[in-house]
Structure formats: C-alpha cells, structure tokens
Design goal:
Blueprint: H1 13-23, H2 31-43, E1 48-50, H3 51-68, H4 80-90, H5 96-106, H6 111-114, E2 117-118, E3 121-122, E4 128-131, H7 132-135, E5 137-140, H8 142-147, H9 151-174, H10 178-181, E6 182-185, E7 190-193, H11 206-213, E8 229-233, H12 238-247, E9 261-265, H13 266-274, E10 278-280, H14 282-296, H15 300-310, H16 314-330, E11 334-336, H17 340-346
Parallel strand pairs: 10-11
Antiparallel strand pairs: 1-5, 2-3, 4-5, 6-7, 8-9
Helix pairs in contact: 1-9, 2-3, 2-9, 3-4, 3-5, 4-5, 14-16
This protein binds zinc ion.
Residues 217, 219-220, 222, 264-265, 267-268, 339 line the site of zinc ion.
Length: 352
Amino acid sequence: MSRKTFSDYKKSIDNDIRTIIHKGKNVACYKFPFFQTILEFAKKDITHITREMLAKPHVDKIIKHMKKSPFQGQTGVRNGKMLQSVKDHIDGKINIEKLLLITEKEGFKDVIRAFPVVGTKKINNNIYSDEIKNNKKIILHDEFLELAQDSNLVKLLDAGTDSRWDLQQRVWEKKIHPSAIINYDENSKALIEVRFNQRLHLTPIKPTLTNYQGDVCFYCRRPYPLNDLEIEHFIPLDLAKQFYLKNNKQLKYNLNNLGNLVNACVECNGPKGKWHLYFPKKQFWYELHARNEQICNSEKPLEIILQNNLGKTKEERLQKLIELRDLCIELHMIEWDGPTEIFNSLQYYKNN
Ligand SMILES: [Zn+2]
C-alpha cells in the first residue's frame, strides 16, 4: 500500500467517515461506539464480525461515555431499552452478561444499516457489507482494512469520534438544536461549540440569519449577496471585557448567541468593527428586538436559544436588551449613529 498524500484525502474513505461522524443522523449515540468498534477489528485484520463479537467493545464505550454524561440520546428514541440497560448496569441492577445479551439483541437494530447513510444517501459502500440478515455478520471491506493500517489516521479518527460524541452529549443535555450552538471548523474538521464571549468564526450562522433579516445589511438595509455580508456582534464582545475589568467577574450574557448576531455590510461593519467599544444607537435595539421576535416565532429550537439568553417572554426579552444597553452606557462604551447619510436618504425611520 502506498502512503497516502494529503491531497489524496479529498475524495477518500476517511473523509466519508468524517462526514458520517459529523453529519450523519444520530437519534442516539450508537454510531460513535459502532465505528470505533469496527475500526478496532479492522486494525486486527478481522473481517467477519458477528453481533456477539461487536457487543462487548461496543457497549464498553457506551458505558464509558454514559459515566461522563447520562444524555446519550434524544428523549424517547427507539432502542431506549438499550440505553436504559446500560444505565441499569452502571447502577448495579444488571450484570455484564445480561447487558451483553441485551446489546446483541437491541444494540445494532438500526446502526448497521444506517451508519453509512448521510441525509438520505448511502455515501460509502466500501466500509463493510451488511450480511446480518442472511449470515448474521458484517464483512469489512479491503479499503477500510487498508485505512486501519495507518496508525496515525486511526488515532485521529478515533479521537475525532470521541470529541464529536462528547459534543453531542452536551447538545442532548442542553436540548438545544445542534446547528445553532455549533460551528463547523474547516481547518480541524471538527465541530466546535459556540463558546461564551470569545472571538469565534461564526460564518456558518450567516445563512440562518438571512432567513430573518433577508439579504440585506441589518443597519443600512441595502441588499447584498450573502458573500458580501459579514456576521457582526450587535453588542460588541468588548462589553464582556469591560464588564470583567470593572467588576472582576464574567458577564452572564453570551454575546455569541443568535440574538446578538446580525449580518452587516462591510461599510457598516467597518467603522463599528474597528472601534470595539461602539454600540448601536437606540432605534437599532428595537430593530434587533423585532428581528429576534421573528426568530422566536419561527422555529422551536431557535426560540429556546433566545429564551435561554434573553428571557421567556417577549417583554422580558425587550427588558433584557434595555438592561444591556444601559450597561453599555454605564461602562462608557460609545454610541454609534449608524450609516447616517444612507439612513437619511432612505428615510428609513421616517415612521419610527
Ligand atoms: Zn450596511
């Protein structure tokens, strides 16, 4: 086998596997331990694998992760019995032999068939063939076995699977829609969580915001192609910094939350982005509130994010924005008038 070069990786089985791990469906955690398990067999060059052989390594991994977090699936998932049995085992209610029998019977109902599917399409046929029905086993394919001989790659895929699994646990725990709290990091091919008040690459959220404010700049309202709009923190991240400097504690508001992000053109984002202490003048805060309420009325998971960050009711959310604006003033940040000339020519606030 010739050593793969980096450029060969573009259309390859390992990139397909990354796609499965990151984007494939998961109503429960099963695809993660299943993949790590077949990778282990492939490393040992074992090709014909029965459910009995899969059970122990598969369930060991679930036990390990469940000890870190009990949230291993969406509530009410099929195969609930499997996860419940793992929990019962951890609680000392059933022994490992019983758990292994349950795993054999319940643990692979969907995952063997569903693993290579992303969306509605099977994206790779070269990992294994599913012969459970006729021969009670899966058979690993040569290309996958070959991949497993590359020990660095195996380490990367294994660790990548673990970190994606950890993240998914937090998503289930917080009951938040994954697309809103995570970003896809092109460089590391890893999913990252939107962290509290740290500067982040937020571009993946741009299309989401376009659904609510249209293909226009939030401030000047001129239309732009999506590529010419930038994600902008309405209240700058510097609020958190100023707050910390003054009070010596963290601001309890995540400025990276959806309700504080808008799409803006370079012209508007330019001056505001350059002066990190700028906050928009009052009218824009009402605009933001109106935009946020649209988001709340559209999709449940997005509504939950705004509720968690700003408040349960419309009134509470407006009140929270007013408080945050007062805080900007208190911390001597600078009010930004917005693109005044453009504004006047459009007479945007004529009626406000
Ligand atoms: Zn603009």
